[in-house]
Design goal:
Length: 144
């Protein structure tokens, strides 16, 4: 089984559907092998079902191996981890900083070195400039 080819073909299929691959993994869990495909975009159950059928049909065409595995197609989730190049203005994010502090807010401005984050603290709206090099982890967050 050529996992590199399979991943590339799945990326192409997702691109045709205006979707983006978040992660592709092939791993063993207990006695089962699992091929996991996660999209960056949120999907409803019907969309996941249709996408699973499309990926399954694609795999039938390109994977001629006798290997058996379970296909798991889903979305990465509404609070998925972000890579630094995915940060953009308007996103509501949860940031973990080098000093272990955490902050959650909306990115108002972003350049190559820093971002401007608007957040609430004790019912007051505040803005903070954060150097990108001070961010150790970023993920999407849900605004309540």
């Amino acid at each position: 089984m050529d996992l590199t080819l399979i991943e590339e073909k799945i990326k192409n299929l997702l691109t045709e559907k205006n979707l983006h691959l978040y992660s592709f993994r092939y791993y063993k869990q207990a006695s089962d092998y699992i091929m996991e495909v996660l999209t960056k975009e949120s999907l409803d159950l019907d969309s996941v079902s249709l996408l699973s059928q499309d990926i399954s049909a694609l795999l039938d065409e390109i994977d001629k191996s006798e290997d058996t595995y379970l296909l798991d197609v889903s979305c990465a989730g509404s609070e998925r981890k972000l890579e630094m190049d995915e940060l953009e203005e308007g996103l509501y994010v949860h940031l973990t900083l080098k000093d272990k502090s955490e902050v959650e807010g909306e990115i108002k401005q972003l350049d190559q070195e820093k971002l401007s984050l608007v957040y609430k603290e004790k019912n007051k709206t505040k803005t903070s400039e954060i150097l990108l090099t001070d961010i150790t982890e970023a993920r999407l967050a849900i605004k309540f």
